[in-house]
Amino acid sequence: MLRSCAARLHALGALRGLPGAARPPARSPGPARRSLFLEADFHKDSSLPKPSWSKDMRLLFDQFMKKCEDGSWTRLPFYSYKAVQNVHDFIAFIHGSLPSTAKLVDKEQLSQAQIFTESFKDGLGFEYVMFYNDAEKRTVCLFQGGPHLQGMPGFLHGGAVATMIDATVGMSAIKAEGLVMTANLNINFKRPVPLCSVVVINSHLDKTEGRKLFISCDVRSVDETTLYSEATSSPSSRRKCGPSPAPLTRC
Amino acid sequence: MIRRGLQGAARLRHHGALPGAARILPRLNPASAFGSSTDSLVSRFCPEKTDLKDYALPNASWCPDMLSLYQEFLEKTKADGWVKLPSFKSNRDHIQGLKLPSGLAATSDKSDWRLFTRCIPVEGQGFEYAIFFHPSKKKSVCLFQPGPYLEGAPGFAHGGSLTTMIDETFSKIAFLAGEGLLTLSLNIKFKNLIPVGSLAVLNIDVEKIEDQKLYMSCVAQSRDQKTIYAKCSGVFLRLQLEQE
């Protein structure tokens, strides 16, 4: 399964393809260096503080932004799907990998599509921001689950936790290997997460064996005293980035 | 006895998490059998009359596959022992008159909070699904059609949305089969991507019921069973709800 690779590729392109990538990208640096990912017309980075973010979320965000100052950590921006529609190479890759299911894709529906985790109005669904540390091969996601993600009354739905674990683990994998597909995901839930609270999802690349990656992840409360869940995942890279002019393959 | 034990646990947690505490809840006394049988749970879950809106009913966004399979299963509810589960906007509506054990109940309670799989209200955009359950065989079938808002890779459903749908179906079946309440673990292996707007059929079996845990498995595949989307196993914690 490909996690919202579209958004991740944006981040990848933004970070690796452009100068000054450690800073949150503001505007594209000019027509000469324009990449597919930073079209001048529009970007909405949904991983910046908003009114719906709780105090905990903002505090943590500020703490991590501080860590970014010396370059050891980077904030990973996300862009909504619309901006990725033109990534033809990417779409060709998917359809090439899964020919039988690709035939069933409804092109019309594609136009209304939104990436799952971005589908909710401000504050009601997934509010999150990810930071990456290349030296430690670690991805940290600050996640605030909104009132429309409920499972048991008052608590976050297991599926919502799983979605965010998958997204964070996926980011770790993409940083390591470029395009990947989740082979499996194993999650142990220790305690239910109270709705509208902030959790820290910490994912780490443990090892690589050929094309297989082994990633472990845990979900903790802001003060780290409560462990909500632990997970492991072993995505495999479908294809090493090949020689092609598109920025997509600048892995 | 369960109530006292849980209150004790709640007090302990209030003073900060215990390092190395393996359990979130006290060991339940095996002798205190889970009183409700599957049949009584099912009849409580599927009220004859209710004002609540049932979202697990066909609408204009359902693809032909989904509609026809739904009709097939509806026929089976008449004679073959299958039950169609209603689907309300919040789990609160499913457990009217009951509440979570005191150690677990959320401190605040807002009425605008919604069940994750029922929170995208526009027909066809998010999770479209209907769950059928066979109480005596302890089997279930969930018809799932992911909408464009659940996208991951262009044209395909986000893996998280399938995991969510499986977890949601597990949770309903775990409850009805043995008062399973909370997910303990999920192990999902993804095989293929589900195209947005197409039907995925989830087949769930209850594998084993122990004193405190309930084990289930799920295979998500296309209607003709030629494409397997994912296989998943899940373990749920059994907990009795309390009277309000």
TrEMBL record, chain A:
SUPFAM superfamilies: Thioesterase/thiol ester dehydrase-isomerase. Keywords: Apoptosis, Cell membrane, Cell projection, Cytoplasm, Fatty acid metabolism, Hydrolase, Lipid metabolism, Membrane, Mitochondrion, Mitochondrion inner membrane, Transit peptide. One of its GO terms (molecular function) is hydrolase activity. Residues 154-226 form the Thioesterase domain. One of its GO terms (cellular component) is mitochondrial inner membrane. Its EC number is 3.1.2.2. It is found in: Cell projection, Ruffle membrane; Cytoplasm; Mitochondrion inner membrane; Mitochondrion intermembrane space. One of its GO terms (biological process) is fatty acid metabolic process. Residues 230-251 are annotated as: Disordered. It holds the Pfam family 4HBT. It catalyses: (5Z,8Z,11Z,14Z)-eicosatetraenoyl-CoA + H2O = (5Z,8Z,11Z,14Z)-eicosatetraenoate + CoA + H(+); tetradecanoyl-CoA + H2O = tetradecanoate + CoA + H(+); decanoyl-CoA + H2O = decanoate + CoA + H(+); dodecanoyl-CoA + H2O = dodecanoate + CoA + H(+). The keyword Cell division does not apply. InterPro entries: HotDog_dom_sf (IPR029069), THEM4/THEM5_acyl-CoA_thioest (IPR052365), Thioestr_dom (IPR006683). Belongs to the THEM4/THEM5 thioesterase family. This is Acyl-coenzyme A thioesterase THEM4. It comes from Phyllostomus discolor. The gene is THEM4.
UniProtKB/TrEMBL annotation, chain B:
It comes from Phyllostomus discolor. SUPFAM superfamilies: Thioesterase/thiol ester dehydrase-isomerase (SSF54637). InterPro entries: HotDog_dom_sf, Thioestr_dom. One of its GO terms (cellular component) is mitochondrial matrix. This is Acyl-coenzyme A thioesterase THEM5. One of its GO terms (molecular function) is long-chain fatty acyl-CoA hydrolase activity. Residues 155-227 form the Thioesterase domain. Coiled coil: none annotated. GO terms for biological process: cardiolipin acyl-chain remodeling; long-chain fatty-acyl-CoA metabolic process.
